[in-house]
Specification:
Blueprint: H1 3-11, E1 17-20, H2 25-34, H3 41-52, H4 56-59, E2 61-66, H5 68-71, H6 81-87, E3 91-95, E4 100-103, E5 106-112, H7 118-128, E6 132-139, H8 148-167, E7 171-178, H9 186-206, E8 215-216, H10 233-247, E9 254-257, H11 264-277, E10 283-288, H12 290-302, H13 307-324, H14 331-334
Parallel strand pairs: 1-2, 1-10, 2-3, 3-6, 6-7, 7-8, 8-9, 9-10
Antiparallel strand pairs: 4-5
Amino acid sequence: MSELNTTALKILENGKGILAADESTGTMTKRLEAVKVPSTPENRLLFRETLFSASSMTGCIGGVILYDETIKQKSTNKYSIPELISKMGSIPGIKVDTGAKVLANSLDEKITEGLDGLRDRLKEYYKLGAKFTKWRGVYNITKEHPSKLAIYSNAHALARYAALVQECNMVPIVEPEVLMDGNHSAHDCFIKTSEVIQKCFEELILHKIDLSGIILKPNMILSGAESKNKIDGKEIAKMTVECLKISVPTEVPGIAFLSGGQSEIEATENLDLINKQNNTNFIMSFSYGRALQQSALKHWSKDINNIEETQKIFNHRARMNTLAAQGKWSKELENK
């Protein structure tokens, strides 16, 4: 068992998942302004530190994805943020892409940038305490999209990123996200997501990636947000598990789903249904941002110094998702 495989398994062991706290300063500013809290470095840190020091970090959160600003900050007790996360029993990680930009010659699609200078940035993040990384490619579904160009270009970038990350002895999270935006059917989502993931693994294998030392972060199979033909949770679970069975090599240790615009409860319930149907050897867990943080953020915004009550709300959400990652969640537990 390689060191990378050990790290990947530790992040996802016993129903643990990943807290995606890697919102850029711009995104975090929008989130804070929406709840009428000024977006200062101090406030951004205070909210994140409130979550990172919550008791559920120890039993429910195996890894935390940080943003460049956060990984370099100090907590109120003078620990660096990676030290605080490690002391809580979780593993610090870092987002390393620089965002999705317009794809040349396919102006309605995006390509994720950030490969320039990545090797040196990875060395710095490793010294700061990061043990894993994240890079997100995004794809939209229409009659013409995602194009072969977008599918190939993003798969190639994800593979080059993963190679540099493993070279630096960190676990790459490979995140190809087929977006919910649009009125496409769940069948369309299944076909396109399968194609996207299969192309990613073709490129990862070409680039000699140790597949036992990565975590895949895909979308679930969902109807488009504007679709009139929604499918129920059991069908979402069935199609998602089937998609991953046909698309993901068996060496991959774990899959951590993104929530992708689902509500907190939807993201938990669908993860639970996936695990109740999971007949693969893959660990299937969560890597959620808003679906772990939104209720806590709303409560915190009423009184940013009421740390304990905010942590209670976050702890509940984290526990519910850990149960879902083991197929043990229920609506009754949610409402206790």
